[in-house]
């Protein structure tokens, strides 16, 4: 047998999920009855349970599916739902075992189905457990256990390889679900695409310098191609992973408040309705919110910016070396507070908008967050590029509102020291320095905090919990350690589970946001410093690996949700690409002093020329994007091929069925029967019997195609033709029944 | 019995289709054998035939479905195909009669299915008759007979009603198919929407005058809302008529030339491939084509424009009153020739692009035609607005290239007569006059020719055919009239059919193009003359009625094709709306001389202000369009409701099925069995027998949810809580199997 330490990491004891039940803040009798209800609810949906003691006033409830039959039933149900929503092309086979053999269950699918079984409402066949909400507020978390053997291999493999293969992404999808896999796929694609601007940027930096129009065009084209390519790639991956269209399967938000219940006149289904107009009214609150956020964040950034410019470029008084850090101090203290207040406000606003589905809620929230992130990330550079540089000479001298440069010093030096619009000149290196800060320094800091902060947070939180329990324990007298009751055999395993229970929940959106914002620097400002892409290339190689480590070490195993897109972030990418053409063209024009252009000075920048560059660049971009979209849509990808193939098979089966049914129909009888006196008399009798209509008589003149052909031949032969003369004049060019009468 | 004349119009003799077989140019034996083949092919797919003599070397072959069973089989097959392609939500019932009772066949569907039965290739279950092509080049046309009773009612109803109801459109759809119905639905929607700009335009004309920014904003907003609304309405109508998604059912082009045949590795299907890169290369020829068309048409228009300006505004020589008509003469003679040459070239180019499907071919062709139409329709006004008005003062004096104003006259007056940039001034009314011409005069002329030209063409063509036959007859000697053989009873009916055989084929694209180009005048230039919409409102009321008359009287009954969109014209609408914001903002700025703005003179127009207006207007438009799109998508339309309902029903049925299957699974057994010494010994024996693994032992500690609940209760009670003290310290807070051992 393996040594206990490694054994604890090697087995998950067949546990599917662990439910952490915390009762520190509830009185015991309620806690006990709720716990009993919890166990019963889980049991009612076919889940087997085991309970163990947890850390600090919590118990750990281990859950697994009781029997294969139960699991298979759920899998079948989930697959039927997919089929109805068009995610699968073909209906799953009725015989579940057969279906599972044809298409084996992968780990993420299994975990997702079990998680849904635990959390779905009772009406939809689940146990209705909703962590931290309502009657289940004691259920602190529901999490699966890490597969340490796989995690170890994963990190080992990734840290030793330069490039990730599609198989690596498939692996992530199979283990952690499509949503996480989409993040890694996006980052990997982005990383690979980055090589082009990195190479071109390095060359441009050496040969062309900054603000090169050639680099600008290349950068805008690259952003467009990447965005459009990823749009297609999403579809392709969706097909590869069998999740195309899952974002259309709408999960209702539990928090959705309906205003009235309407019964559908046809289906009798009870529909919970919230008037769209009312929601629209509420959504209009976004406008003051956005304006407010812009003003508050903008004011903060502009203030710090002004202070910084003032102190570093005008101020010559005492403590300059210390005061230089004043804006940084203000930003790092006030900004997080302001951001968290605004984020909180955005969340409340989105909740107030009362979206019906989880998807709509997430999209609305993401959009608001993006606005805030946009301001905090890019506004400083915008201020430098489009306010400080062109108008700095005019504005900066007025920054000295308090007359700080003057007061404390000798009055007689006044005329010399105070800068006037005439003698102040802007610092031309500021823009490049700032871009360098955001694309290198800030990225480095970010990467560091991403790894360290969660560790500190976890340590602190666990300390807090310990203290809370200790305080409780002190009040209640001595107590035994929760681990005291552990059976020796499971002790190590339980210790590990208790640790995992304390970990943070992984939020893939935050990582995606980081990538999108990074893309923004590239599209908006890389023309200022063409080495931007080189820097990002290095960071992203690390980012992919540190994210893997983060998920494995610092986070609970993520619930394997499905996704078929990176969602609203794709729109953000499009927006940044579009805005990038505007900023790039403007920057290139404003700083094109190699030729005859202006040098960022207001005097030499011509309004019409600037606007014309922007207008021109934007329309070129729109046409180019349209062309790229069409070109990419024409490319046959393996995913699309797979889908076509599946559709063909379905189509073929149904056609074969329908055709076999058609074949049972009688073929057109060959009515070339012999014409005898009897049959003719019979026809005449039949006709008179039925009191025939003109229609019946019309269609009775020729019976069967042979008669029609014969009569037609008569017409044609009778017709006078130049070519052949009247060869067929004697043929029977008359009606079918006349022919018969002649017989 | 009714009098014969009206009787012939009242009955179609149950005829489904008439095939006109013309053999004037083939030798008789070939004609006869081909005719026999034709009749046999029709018979082989279950169609009954009757032949009658036609006019001038043609025979008329009447076709109807032989039996209901054959028709039902085809209907079922067609509906299954729809279902597979997602056009129908639910699969049609296997029992065809039942399915037809649930959802009766409408006339257009019946005719479409029979037409497809005649024309589809043999491999797809049709007779493979392809009019005018290959071996069927003698098959001149395949057409259904007009329903004269319905036509009469239709025209009567429409000419007496102000507004068309949705039911009227449903009626058209049931008779003439969705493609024609979409045209009428679009025109009717457009007509109804026109009331707003007509009312606002009239008010603006009275109160604000031309070039009003308020009218400009209204007009751009209206165009955007109408385009986006129609985009949604298309979907809605598609659902209402059960055709949503039919444009995705791709019909292969017969003319498609494959380069190689590839066998699909999975399905084994033979795929005919034409490399996409090669097609892309061929499509690039569009660029020189478009440039060529722009240059040729542009040169022609610019020349005529220059001549006109020159003669009417500079020239003072003899024959001025006659010479004024010179540009009109040039345009009306050269333009049609040039247009038809270019159209021909565009068709050849599109054929050369070798599209695989009919839809792709049509789209490619429509795009090319739109480019040409765009130039011929709008370039004259563009020249006036953006060349003549601002730069006229500079350019016009140089138009006198031949020195015509000077030479023939007294040399001494030279200095006085020749205009110089100084003394020439533009004609400010020219722009408005031109817009008036295009929006009133040209529309009137158009409406007239649309009714009269086909009549003349038909008369001429029938005369030509008569002459051709007469010539033939002269060469071959005397012949009897083709009507001589008609049975007296059918004579009138046959006469009518012969007339209908001579009629033109209705092309709905031409009518749609007319409407889209009209929309273009409104979006691009209506700010010049705000009464534009009033004029269009009147013309479109008439247009709807004359189109109805045209279809009923001057055209063969159209083959009832299906459609779920107006196709590429929708893109043209979007394009014109977008361009409209640019032209409107530019015109408003350039002619805003009520305030402090310029008056169309180059001196007072500032480049940056013009560009800023355009840039500003365009981005406001883009944001507005995005908002309108979102708002419209939120509106619940009856069509979308219907679709939701259908989907719900399908979903419910499958869920019920899957759930009934799940219910057969055994429910979680209640393992709260009595714990006895025997059962415990049995457990121990079982465990030792199986050589239990750690996992088995882990899950064996608690049996059934009741035990888990009991153990959990123990943990919770044992935990020290501030609130309650150690109330539960004596409870059995230990493992389940320990509990058992204690028994």
TrEMBL record, chains A, B:
Domain of life of the source: Eukaryota
Q: Which GO terms describe its molecular function?
A: chloride channel activity
Q: Localized where?
A: Membrane
Q: Which residues form the signal peptide?
A: none
What are the start and end residues of every segment in region (Disordered)? 470-489, 722-743
Residue ranges spanning the membrane: these are 287-311, 323-349, 370-391, 519-542, 575-596, 608-628
> What is a single cellular component term in the Gene Ontology annotation?
cortical endoplasmic reticulum
Under PANTHER family, the record lists: ANOCTAMIN
The identity of this protein, by name, is DUF590-domain-containing protein
Query: Which species?
Result: Sporormia fimetaria CBS 119925
């Amino acid at each position: 047998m393996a040594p206990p330490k490694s054994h604890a990491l090697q087995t998950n004891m067949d546990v599917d999920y662990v439910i952490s039940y915390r009762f520190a803040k509830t009185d015991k009798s309620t806690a006990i009855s709720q716990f009993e209800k919890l166990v019963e609810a889980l049991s009612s949906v076919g889940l087997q349970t085991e309970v163990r003691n947890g850390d600090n006033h919590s118990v750990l409830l281990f859950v697994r599916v009781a029997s294969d039959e139960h699991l298979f039933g759920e899998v079948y149900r989930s697959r039927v739902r997919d089929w109805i929503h068009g995610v699968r092309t073909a209906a799953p086979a009725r015989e579940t075992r057969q279906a599972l053999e044809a298409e084996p269950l992968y780990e993420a699918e299994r975990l997702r189905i079990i998680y849904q079984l635990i959390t779905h409402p009772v009406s939809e066949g689940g146990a209705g457990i909703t962590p931290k909400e309502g009657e289940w507020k004691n259920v602190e978390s529901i999490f699966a256990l890490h597969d340490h053997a796989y995690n170890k291999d994963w990190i080992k493999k990734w840290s030793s390889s330069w490039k990730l293969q599609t198989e690596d992404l498939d692996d992530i999808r199979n283990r952690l679900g499509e949503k996480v896999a989409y993040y890694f796929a996006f980052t990997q694609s982005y990383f690979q695409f980055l090589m082009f601007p990195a190479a071109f940027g390095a060359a441009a930096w050496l040969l062309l310098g900054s603000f090169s129009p050639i680099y600008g065009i290349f950068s805008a084209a690259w952003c467009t191609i990447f965005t459009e390519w990823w749009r297609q790639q999403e579809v392709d991956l969706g097909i590869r992973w069998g999740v195309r269209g899952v974002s259309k399967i709408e999960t209702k938000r539990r928090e959705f408040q309906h205003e009235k219940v309407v019964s559908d006149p046809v289906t009798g289904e009870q529909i919970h309705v919230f008037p769209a107009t009312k929601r629209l009214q509420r959504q209009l609150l976004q406008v003051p919110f956005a304006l407010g956020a812009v003003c508050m964040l903008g004011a903060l950034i502009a203030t710090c910016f002004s202070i910084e410019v003032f102190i570093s470029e005008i101020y010559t008084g005492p403590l300059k070396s210390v005061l230089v850090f004043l804006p940084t101090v203000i930003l790092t203290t006030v900004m997080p507070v302001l951001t968290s207040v605004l984020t909180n406000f955005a969340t409340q606003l989105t909740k107030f908008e009362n979206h019906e589905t989880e998807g709509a809620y997430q999209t609305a929230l993401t959009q608001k967050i993006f606005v805030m992130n946009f301001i905090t990330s890019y506004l400083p550079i915008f201020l430098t590029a489009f306010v400080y540089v062109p108008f700095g000479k005019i504005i900066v001298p007025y920054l000295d509102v308090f007359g700080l440069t003057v007061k404390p010093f000798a009055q007689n030096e006044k005329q010399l020291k105070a800068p006037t619009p005439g003698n102040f000149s802007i610092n031309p290196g500021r823009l490049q320095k700032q871009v360098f800060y955001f694309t290198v320094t800030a990225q480095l800091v970010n990467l560091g905090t991403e790894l360290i902060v969660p560790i500190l947070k976890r340590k602190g939180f666990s300390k807090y919990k310990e203290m809370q329990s200790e305080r409780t324990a002190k009040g209640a007298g001595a107590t035994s350690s929760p681990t005291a009751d552990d059976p020796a055999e499971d002790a190590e395993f339980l210790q590990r589970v208790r640790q995992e229970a304390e970990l943070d929940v992984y939020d893939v959106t935050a990582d995606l946001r980081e990538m999108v914002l990074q893309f923004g620097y590239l599209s908006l400002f890389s023309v200022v410093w063409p080495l931007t892409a080189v820097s990002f290339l290095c960071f992203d190689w690390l980012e992919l690996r540190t994210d893997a480590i983060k998920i494995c070490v610092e986070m609970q195993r993520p619930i394997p949700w499905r996704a078929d897109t990176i969602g609203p972030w794709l729109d953000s990418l499009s927006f940044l690409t579009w805005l990038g053409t505007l900023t790039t063209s403007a920057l290139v024009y404003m700083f094109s002093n190699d030729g005859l252009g202006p040098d960022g000075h207001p005097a030499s920048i011509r309004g019409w020329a600037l606007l014309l560059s922007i207008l021109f660049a934007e329309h070129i971009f729109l046409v180019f994007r349209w062309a790229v979209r069409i070109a990419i849509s024409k490319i046959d990808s393996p995913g699309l091929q797979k889908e076509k193939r599946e559709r063909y098979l379905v189509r073929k089966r149904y056609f074969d069925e329908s055709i076999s049914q058609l074949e049972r129909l009688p073929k057109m009888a060959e009515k070339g029967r012999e014409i005898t006196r009897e049959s003719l008399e019979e026809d005449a009798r039949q006709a008179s019997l039925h009191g025939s209509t003109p229609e019946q008589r019309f269609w009775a003149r020729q019976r069967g195609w042979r008669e029609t052909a014969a009569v037609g031949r008569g017409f044609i032969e009778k017709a006078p033709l130049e070519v052949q003369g009247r060869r067929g004049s004697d043929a029977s060019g008359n009606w079918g029944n006349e022919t018969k009468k002649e017989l």
